[in-house]
Automatic annotation (TrEMBL), chains B, E:
It comes from Desulfocucumis palustris. It comes from the Bacteria. It is found in: Cell membrane. Pfam families: FecCD. The chain crosses the membrane at residues 21-42, 83-100, 112-129, 135-155, 167-189, 217-235, 255-284, 296-314, 320-344. GO terms for cellular component: plasma membrane. This is Vitamin B12 ABC transporter permease component BtuC. GO terms for biological process: siderophore-iron import into cell. It is a multi-pass membrane protein. SUPFAM superfamilies: ABC transporter involved in vitamin B12 uptake, BtuC.
UniProtKB/TrEMBL annotation, chains C, D:
This is ABC-type cobalamin/Fe3+-siderophores transport systems ATPase components. It comes from the Bacteria. PANTHER family: IRON COMPOUNDS ABC TRANSPORTER, ATP-BINDING PROTEIN, METAL TRANSPORT SYSTEM ATP-BINDING PROTEIN TM_0124-RELATED. GO terms for molecular function: ATP binding; ATP hydrolysis activity.
Length: 331, 352, 260, 260, 352
């Protein structure tokens, strides 16, 4: 043991699985082994250039526009399906992984690599804010994290204030369509997403993304249907409003009759799934459900501000409009 | 001609000594229509029996339309296609299973044995992966189901030794290949996006069946079922084994090919509208054999009657049990397996 | 109607087991194939029925080569009683016998009343009416053999090929079957059968073909073929053939093995 | 060593097929079970071996009830040659014969050189050394029967139970096996076998048990039991039993069926 | 004693007439150690052969440590456990498969037939669903694998008729039950997190094997393999069928139970560390039978040698083929199936 080594300074963080992790004080190389907005978090916290390995981001062309180097970053796998040797070869200071892949994470820890877990799909609004803070600590970007949390808090408060005027009888019943017409979501995030925007999730009894019968939807008779753009039956072929209107089983539903059918937008990430950007998604949904109640929300401005502040990117009107046409994302 | 055959079926069913069998025979014929009617009143959306009668009558008589339009939608757009589809699929899988069990001289064989389901599943997965429309998924599923079986058949024909075992082995092989292909697609699919779609699709469900779907499978199903039904006597002879059947005057090569094509048409069509529903093709022929014996002259009709009733019953359960639809593939197994176990233990002659 | 084998060579894969066998059988004849274990009797039968590929020679029926006949035509012409038989599904005995009618039915047809009548007659002819409604997999080995014979009768062929039809039969049933064979021959069938009992050949054969290691060792009338000499060569056994008078003035030849 | 059945009743499920059979066999004896098809011979054998449950009575060996014997002890005591046999994996003939040694091996042992020697001797004794390295599934039906007999010999039991051991054998091999049976009896084995040939019983049995519809119809010395009368009753056949002298001054009785 | 047996193995392997077989026999024994060494140099992280030699030598000799610590980690923490695990799993599945094929007299049987994999998969799924630790997942998987088989065994013992078929049927039934259970869990799992975890886990992979995992399975695997190896002669006799084996002096009830317990121990242990890897247990015994014949005295050792080499080879491919590993379960099928097809068509005697 003659090699001279300067012991790196370390710090400890408590990650989202409640585990205390030792990470280098200075994090310069990051490998991401999950989706769920982890990459976006790193980007908005200003550490995009430190990512040396992560799963493909081809689903997010808007993100690739201002982080084009992501196209060439090696993919060392995701969740439990990771290549340990490849990650060792990339010599990361820390791996950002999901709380849902303990097997893969453990293997990395055994190889002596610090693993910090994030909530990915299991996030709630509160959880997400905690996660921003934790990531700020890991990346030494506490200020950026606080700015982000501040943005969230102010918008959440605004939503809450405006929604105060919504009486129970004015609240709209929302059906959140995941990929195929009969699958919906009543899990933590699906619930937060809709209720924060002032809606009632008709599927609140339904735990996770699950299939229901056509009759059930007929009985719920939702006022509005929102269609996820991240879990299509097919890639870039999400459910279209026309498809529902032409479906004889659906024609008698209020939402279809009144043409209250909306596709969830895609920004730098899916707006209906947890990520730093999902606050924009919540505002979009609130405005969509109650254009009058939330008339104060100027989504274009909010989005522009978010992208300017956190992505350091000036969004054009055209780019903003493209967010609402998920099909175009693939082109 | 048709009349004579029908009389024979009755004759054979009722010929048995014990009166119990007469009742069983009658029950067999009464069951499907009975369940058909009952099933209309079941579901998450409440439709009372007399409202149902009104709705049905209104299709024929100029009744006053006092109920909401939604009721019409529920009855004709949601329940009717679903009931018909489940009966069709149940009958098809049971028929294919019965035919295969005879052809392979093996009571453990199911219609999937030559890779039809595996192929159809792969076809669906690849269609989902490549963003096809729903109709595209169905077509791809059907075609790959056929392709898988034809491939297995082609491969087996290059093996000289013991053609039946060769066929089964080739089928298992091709099936595994397609299943791995499906896994590979699942694996390559974005876990946030395609994976759940593919996984759920493979579990099998009739929840989304539309009238159009029923129309699109009725032709391949009839094209498969009618020849098999007509060939049912020859299935008896085939079940004695290749050599003996040939000595008794059967062109086994051609008959086997016909049985395979017909069974595959039905299986692939079934998978293409409602995903992989295992177990029916294995269970129902056994059940039928316990009730009416191994003679295909009665076994095949009995399988059709029991198969359609069984799947309809299970699907009724799926519809009424919970808000969330439990996939039919899961339910058929969860109900079928213990039921089958019970039968096995009770029956005097085992599974025969 | 004549069945004729001309220089037939056959076997498994490309290896010949039986070489250059020629044999004509006519209506009314009973041809016995005698030969030691493994001499190729079963192989030859399977080839005659087209279940094994012909390696050489040809098989003619009424002068016509049957190589291209459809299976159902062959089955209407030749009935087969196999040597070994795996019990299939638990069919009733009557159903098994009815399956003998298959070659006479249209592709999509099931047996008619008439077919049923023919099957029942065949069952009766073999005195096994009591088995009729039993399950085939639950009767004794000898009983199964009788059922298979009944099935071949129901098939109403012109040539009957029987591979050791008496091997599992009791003493009484053996003679029953032999009597049947003779009756069938009288009715105009040609019967080709193998047997391990030269004495049976003396009782009921009109012609004998001796097979030795896949080659024809001799063919002709039973009295000429079954001699102390030929049995010694074929089976390595010393025997004495004696003639004894039986009641009603008939004469029978019996084969007495010379043991110790 | 004596094997004794006392009032044995047996059958399938709870339905008796064989009723109240008593029979003692001693070393050196050859007991023939004669009876029509379906009279219960195979059933009785399977019960003696403990393969079917005893419904009544008991089976004694040297006075000891074998009901609780472990299988390996039964196998060292009794060898069995089954009537029907499904070909398994394509084992070599020698391996099949070696399996007869199993009961003599420790639970975790494989056959030793000595076992191999015994197996080879058994094979030689039946003149089938040429089959030794052949594949069991690719030899003729009669050849298989000989292999199974060799296996039973390799088992070196004190009682040999043979269910129609000659039924698929050619004329020469039949006599070979009969000679063997006698040799084994002289060596001190007790042999119990079924046969469809009363003549064979006359040739080699020391005792005969007649079985009729599952009941004992008679038991005793072969000359006493096999009479024109008893054969008529059991099998419904008219026969004449004649005595003929064979070379070397010996006498043999032959059974001549009276046909036509 | 051991020596005599070994000689016999060699003897039997080399006894065959053609010299080709002698080479095959030698190759069989040489293959595993050879592959073992080669496998150390393969992987995404470059370790040259001479560096590897140094690293290995340093474990025994006081060499100067001139390479980065990471190399040690790669060799001893990543590659070593993985190589050992793949060999263990391959050998275990092949042995279990060979034993089952004999016991059931059926060359189409795989070690999963009694539900071991289905049970183990269910155990893992339920553990993942409930967010157990990795050790918890492994333990649950192993226990449910055992449970499934014992359940099948218990059920079958209540059926009188034809015990072997009863066992297979019960196994299929119980297997279906557990598979449906797994599907149900998959269905209930959040598609955004648990579903991919369960799905990937079921595809089978050795990517995450740690030294601890190897230690945790080595005991059940040996506990299963050693008795089977010792009982290999009796497996021959058992393959003649229940009745004949009993007549030859074997307590078939006890032997069958032993074979089942041993095979299940191995299968469940294998599944518990690396998920469901099908196909090995079916393919390898066939391959071995083609090479050395059906006699278990040589078939079992040959299966062990071929099984360990085969899975190691496939896993090596998995490691080097792509950055992101293709699950082993998929690879074994994608490679195994065509290979098997090729063998089938070539071999003179079919699959025997
Ligand atoms: N499936 C097979 N593959 C290869 N060779 C075979 C096969 N079956 C039989 N043989 C061989 O062919 C030869 C003739 O067999 P065959 O069965 O025709 O004899 P056989 O005269 O019918 O004998 P037996 O009187 O014992 O029934 C034998 O030497 C046998 O070993
Ligand atoms: N598995 C079975 N289940 C029920 N009954 C059976 C079974 N096997 C045979 N039997 C019946 O038991 C009776 C005796 O059969 P068994 O096989 O013992 O006769 P056997 O004397 O050996 O006849 P064979 O000379 O034809 O071999 C027969 O009536 C038969 O129908
Ligand atoms: Mg033969
Ligand atoms: Mg018998």
């Amino acid at each position: 043991q003659t090699a001279v080594k300067t012991a790196p300074a370390e710090k400890t963080v408590v990650d989202m699985s409640g585990k205390t992790v030792k990470v280098p004080a200075e994090v310069n190389k990051i490998v991401v082994t999950c989706y769920g907005g982890a990459t976006n978090e790193i980007v908005v916290l200003g550490a995009a250039d430190k990512i040396v390995g992560q799963p493909s981001q081809e689903n997010f062309p808007h993100l690739l526009k201002f982080e084009p180097q992501f196209k060439n970053i090696p993919d060392a796998g995701s969740f439990d399906n990771i290549s340990v040797e490849e990650i060792i070869r990339l010599k990361p200071d820390v791996v950002i992984a999901s709380v849902t892949s303990p097997k893969g994470n453990k293997k990395l820890e055994d190889a002596g690599i610090p693993v910090v877990t994030v909530l990915t799909g299991r996030a709630t609004i509160d959880g997400l804010k905690k996660e921003f803070k934790m990531m700020g600590e890991v990346l030494n970007k506490e200020n950026e994290a606080n700015t982000l949390i501040g943005f969230w808090d102010s918008r959440l408060k605004m939503l809450k204030d405006e929604a105060a005027g919504l009486t129970a009888d004015k609240q709209k019943k929302v059906y959140y369509m995941l990929g195929i017409p009969l699958r919906t979501d009543g899990s933590a995030w699906g619930q937060d997403f809709i209720t924060t925007a002032g809606g009632i999730n008709v599927a609140r009894g339904v735990d996770n993304a699950n299939q229901v019968s056509a009759e059930q939807v007929l009985q719920w008779n939702p006022d509005v249907i929102i269609m996820s753009s991240n879990i299509g039956p097919t890639k870039n072929h999400f459910i279209m409003a026309d498809e529902l209107k032409n479906n004889a089983q659906m024609t008698n539903i209020n939402a279809v009759k009144n043409n209250q059918l909306y596709q969830c937008p895609i920004g730098a990430f899916w707006w209906d799934r947890p990520s730093p950007e999902s606050i924009l998604g919540i505002m979009w949904l609130a405005r969509t459900l109650y254009p009058d109640t939330f008339a104060n929300i100027n989504l274009a401005r909010e989005t522009g501000e978010f992208f300017k502040t956190f992505y350091h990117y000036s969004l054009t009107d055209q780019e903003f409009k493209a967010f609402f046409n998920p099909q175009s994302a693939g082109e | 001609m048709e009349l004579i055959k029908k009389r024979n079926i009755f004759q054979l069913i009722f010929q048995s000594r014990d009166g119990l069998r007469v009742i069983k025979g009658g029950a067999l014929f009464a069951l499907p229509p009975l369940l058909f009617i009952i099933s209309f009143t079941l579901g998450r959306y409440p439709v009372s029996p007399d409202l149902l009668l009104n709705v049905l009558a209104a299709k024929l008589l100029p009744l006053q339309h006092t109920w909401p339009d939604t009721v019409d939608t529920v009855v004709f757009q949601v329940r009717l296609p679903r009931i018909i589809a489940s009966m069709l699929v149940g009958a098809a899988l049971a028929t294919a299973g019965a035919a295969y069990q005879g052809m392979f001289k093996n009571p453990l064989v199911s219609p999937d044995i030559l890779g039809a389901s595996a192929g159809a599943g792969f076809g669906a997965a690849i269609a989902i992966f490549n963003s096809f429309s729903i109709i595209g998924i169905q077509a791809s599923s059907f075609l790959f189901g056929l392709l898988a079986v034809l491939l297995a058949y082609a491969v087996s024909s290059r093996i000289r030794h013991d053609p039946m075992l060769a066929l089964i082995l080739s089928g298992i092989l091709v099936g595994t290949l397609f299943t791995s292909g499906t896994s590979l697609i699942k694996y390559m699919a974005d876990p946030y996006d395609k994976l759940p779609a593919i996984t759920y699709w493979l579990m099998g469900s009739l929840a989304a069946v539309a009238p159009r779907d029923v129309l699109s499978v009725i032709i391949p199903m009839l094209a498969g079922a009618v020849p098999l039904y007509l060939l049912r006597w020859r299935l008896n002879v085939l079940s004695l084994g290749e050599e003996e059947a040939r000595a008794l005057g059967i062109n086994t090569g051609r008959l086997k090919f016909l049985v395979i094509v017909c069974s595959t048409l039905m299986t692939a069509a079934a998978v293409s509208i409602c995903g992989v529903i295992g177990w029916v093709g294995l269970l129902v022929p056994h059940l039928a054999r316990m009730l009416v014996g191994p003679n295909y002259k009665v076994l095949l009709p009995a399988s059709i009657l029991i198969g359609s009733s069984y799947l309809l019953l299970v699907d009724d359960l799926a519809r009424i049990m919970a808000v969330v639809e439990i996939p039919l593939g899961i339910l058929t197994s969860l109900i079928g397996a213990p039921f089958f176990l019970y039968l096995l233990q009770r029956s005097r002659r085992g599974w025969l | 109607m004549r069945l004729e084998l001309k220089n037939v060579t056959c076997g498994y894969g490309s290896k010949p087991v039986v070489h250059q066998v020629s044999l004509p059988v006519d209506s009314g004849e009973v041809l016995y194939l005698l030969g030691p274990n493994g001499s190729g009797k079963t192989t030859l039968f399977k080839t005659m029925l087209g279940l094994l590929r012909l390696q050489g020679g040809e098989i003619l029926c009424g002068g016509e080569n049957i190589g291209n006949w459809p299976r159902s035509r062959i089955a209407r012409f030749m009935g087969y009683i196999p040597q070994a038989h795996n019990p299939p599904f638990p069919y009733k005995v009557l159903d098994i016998v009815l399956m003998g009618r298959t070659a006479h039915l249209g592709a999509f047809a099931s047996p008619s009343e008439n077919d049923q009548k023919i099957a029942l007659e065949a069952i009766e002819a073999l005195n096994i009416s009591h088995l009729q409604n039993k399950i085939y997999t639950e009767i004794s080995g000898g009983e199964r053999q009788l059922v298979l014979i009944a099935r071949a009768l129901a098939q109403q062929p012109q040539v009957l090929i029987m591979d050791e039809p008496t091997s599992n039969l009791d003493f009484g049933n053996q003679l029953l079957v032999l009597r049947h064979v003779q009756k069938l021959a009288q009715m105009g069938l040609a019967v080709v059968m193998s047997s391990h009992f030269p004495e049976h050949a003396l009782l009921s054969a009109t012609k004998v073909l001796l097979l030795h290691k896949g080659k024809v060792f001799g063919a002709g009338r039973p009295e000429e073929m079954i001699t102390e000499q030929s049995l010694k060569t074929l089976f390595g056994v010393d025997v004495k053939i004696i003639t004894t008078t039986i009641r009603k003035g008939g004469e029978t030849r019996v084969i007495v093995p010379l043991v110790q």
